[in-house]
Specification:
four-stranded parallel beta sheet, TIM Barrel, alpha/beta, 2 domains, single chain, Urease, subunit C, domain 1, eight-stranded mixed beta sheet
């Protein structure tokens, strides 16, 4: 079997850099306070705190980050990069540029490409393109089933050997319960997390938005919250029966949050994610048939939004991921029920998530746990920490920076976002990958 390309991009930057006077937030190491970070040969070489003597190379580049947060590089464990097959919407180069601009040093890309990522060849193609782009680390997620058809398991060993970090049929639920059980058992043999797209299709089929008063008023067929909670219940039950972990993607309903909370209380190794749009927006964002507010699962009720916030606050939900899903105008400028599901999210995740801190729902450290520490832990990849010797994947955040999110500022090939034209607060202003500056508004 041929070797796959390197899964981790290591830009060739040998310049020493000293990040001075920032607020270092590194939850994995219990650090939250003023510190200077020295980077040498692309790695964290020293962390200076208090009156500790700073010994740095004479040619070191010094960056004054007074008033800014210095955190481990953010990791988005749920994105759609569209390559191969749908490069007119997004490709790995444009997607990772958008990731860097949003403060992400790594992304895990879902397998619903064309062809789908169910084999060695597609995984290697993705990693080869990512190595050429060099804007962010790219971690491929392979399919659970061949062709993502839900009929036969993909070759997990082959996918793992090629460089896949998890398996999912995201975009399609695995309807066959026996197949999903076997996937949990089989994936465990290769330390591949199973990411569940929890959707009961017999309840959601034909739906365009959340089922409720808004869908009735707009004359659109609704998707009931039970379409998510019924599927989450099944997946948690099968994970418990198989004695294997499962990760629940894009949680949007209060019922799902409650089910995950109860499973965790019983000691099941369950993890879960939600996306910023589920704790910022509700079904009312659909307004007058705004297709940029159409996604799957759909935006839910205010009661569901509050339940998701509670799940973030108490640790029921482990990760904030964007579910970045670029679509061109060809798929979005249609009648609402015909338009494609999904929005872009890489460049808005930081300001939207910072709302949780501003509203005192979570602490800054908890935010970084959900955006960096936990994704690295769940996927079993490098990152999430700035310990000595670690790759210098670093995000610098100005938590008070105000800006208007415009189409002109979008680095993705697509602009399908309900947040266009809005003034947002908080921004990644410097992103570093292995000591290489991939995005900056500072120097």
């Amino acid at each position: 079997m041929p070797k796959s390309p390197k899964k981790v991009v290591q830009p060739g930057n040998t310049q020493s850099i000293l990040l001075r006077n920032g607020r270092l937030i590194d939850p994995a190491n219990g650090v939250d306070g003023p510190a200077d970070v020295l980077i040498k040969a692309g790695r964290v070489a020293a962390i200076f705190r208090g009156k500790q003597k700073r010994v740095v190379p004479t040619d070191c580049l010094r960056l004054d980050l007074t008033g800014l947060w210095v955190v481990p590089g953010l990791i988005d464990m749920h994105v759609h990069l569209r390559e191969p097959g749908q490069e007119y919407k997004e490709d790995i180069a444009s997607g990772t540029r958008a990731a860097a601009a949003g403060g992400f040093t790594a992304v895990a890309c879902m397998p619903n490409t064309s062809p789908v990522n169910d084999c060695w060849a597609v995984t290697v193609q993705i990693l080869t393109a990512a190595a050429a782009a060099a804007s962010a680390r790219v971690y491929p997620v392979g399919c659970i089933s061949k062709g993502s058809k839900g009929e036969e398991l993909a070759e997990f060993g082959e996918l793992r050997a090629a460089g896949a970090v998890a398996v999912s049929d995201d975009g399609q639920p695995v309807v066959n319960s026996q197949l999903f059980r076997r996937a949990l058992e089989y994936a465990g043999n290769y330390n591949l997390p199973v990411i569940s797209h929890a959707e009961e299709l017999t309840l959601s089929k034909g739906g365009a938005m959340n089922e409720g008063e808004m869908s009735i008023r707009l004359g659109l067929r609704g998707i009931p919250s039970a379409a998510e909670s019924v599927a989450v219940y099944r997946d948690l039950a099968l994970a418990g029966f198989a004695g294997r972990p499962v990760h629940i993607a894009h949680v949007s309903t209060g019922e799902a949050v409650d089910l995950i909370r109860r499973a965790k209380a019983l000691g099941q190794p369950i993890t879960a994610e939600t996306a910023p749009h589920y704790f910022i927006l509700t079904e009312r964002a659909v307004g007058q048939y705004d297709t940029n507010a159409k996604m799957n699962p759909p935006l839910r009720s205010e009661v569901d939004r509050q339940a998701v916030l509670a799940g973030l606050a108490d640790g029921t939900i482990d990760v904030i991921a964007t579910d970045h899903a670029p679509h061109s105008a060809l798929e979005k400028e249609l009648e609402f029920d015909q338009a494609a599901n999904g929005i872009i999210g890489l460049q808005t995740a930081v300001p939207l998530s910072l709302e949780l801190v501003r509203q005192q729902i979570i602490t800054p450290a908890r935010l970084i746990e959900m955006l960096a520490v936990n994704p690295a832990r769940i996927l079993g990849v490098e990152g999430g920490s700035l310990q000595l010797g670690a790759p210098a994947d670093i995000t610098v955040i100005d938590s008070e920076k105000s800006f208007v999110f415009t189409a002109e500022s979008v680095l993705s090939k697509s602009c399908n976002s309900p947040f266009l034209g809005q003034r947002l607060t908080g921004k990644a202003v410097l992103t570093m990958l292995a000591g290489n500056i991939t995005y900056n508004e500072r120097v």
